[in-house]
Amino acid sequence: MNLKDRIIRSTGKKAPFRLVLVDITNTMNEIGAKHGAQSYSLKLLAETAISSIFLSSSLKMKGTVSVTATFGGEISYAKADTSPLISRKEGDESYYFVRAMIPQDDLEAIKGDEPALIPQTYQVVKLNEYGKRVHESMVQAVSASMGQNLATYLYQSEQILSAVGIEAQFNKQDPNKLDYAVGFYVEAFPEMEEKDSTILEQVVLNLPKFADMYATQQSGGKTMLDELLYQFEGPYEIEVIKEFGAKAFCPCNKERTISSLAALPINDLKDLEKEGKDLELVCDFCRTKYTVTIDDLKNLIKEREK
Q1: Positive or negative CA dihedral for 208, 210, 212, 217?
Q2: Could you give the 3-state DSSP secondary structure of residue 297?
Q3: pTM for this one?
Q4: Contact 226, 240 (CB under 8 A)
Q5: Which end of the chain is more exposed for a tag (fewer CB within 10 A), N or C?
């Protein structure tokens, strides 16, 4: 597959574990540009999205995983939703749809500065294909690192032993772009023997630094994901189950935007109608602007009054 971004799902042949590798650099640069995110906020967006991808990689159904990390300090929260689209036709490409956001007021306040962050919570919500919540859990966030928060969540909420590495690095010359947004996730299955668990732990501890793998990639060597795959293949054979691409995607549209107004009290809707002005609403995720006209408001009020 010739994909700009890659998500590799694989398993160990000689030991029972699952390995997921992610590179969504291009997708997060596209999402970051829509939000005007830069440097540290762009890094946080990407790392939150990668943690959501790792969780959605284990979905046993069609659906979406939403991750929200809340903070005290200059950023209130970061949120990412991912949905795997698995093609069943030979030759067709499969993708993870990704969207992510930090409140726009927070982004405008910090601009390119490093924000002061006090980790508070890490929340995971799993939705089925119809948008119904099938799982929701929250743990105390242990750091600003999404990898550490994800590992803590998995251990406390799902009793899964895992090793997680997530890192995004912004470009020093152009902080509006990421050099890379990469991660690995290793899940040991319950039947794994202690000797294999010890070996796997050493493999993780001895992995090259992400920055060193990026430098190798830039000099014409292995890509970061290929290097990670090579490192895990050292003591084990790895079987790649499927490789995916990634796409920035948001399911918002004008109809859904108008529907969101229906949650307002009817008196508030009537006050908006009296003002006689069209409303401009902006999607928090993709920053698409929608105009809700007075006629739209009138129709909405009529529906409510029925």
Answers
A1: positive
A2: helix
A3: 0.92
A4: no
A5: C
If one counts every other C-beta atom within 10 angstroms of the C-beta of residue 190, the result is: 8
Contact 154, 160 (CB under 8 A): yes
Q: Give the SS3 label for residue 260.
A: helix
Length of the chain (residues): 306
- CA 207 from chain centre, in angstroms, equals 23
C-alpha to C-alpha distance for 293 and 50, rounded to whole angstroms:
38
DSSP string, 269-282: HHHHHHHT--EEEE
Q: Nearest-CA neighbor of 252 among 42, 126, 97?
A: 97
170 sits in which H/E element: strand 162-170
What are the φ and ψ backbone dihedral angles of 144, each rounded to 5 degrees? -80, -5
67-108: per-residue pLDDT in tens? 999 999 999 999 999 999 876 665 567 999 999 999 999 999
Residue 181's nearest CA partner among 117, 118, 225 is 225
Pairing of strands 6-12, 238-248: antiparallel
Q: What is the pLDDT of residues 243-295, one digit of tens each?
A: 999 999 999 998 888 888 888 888 888 888 889 889 999 999 999 999 999 99
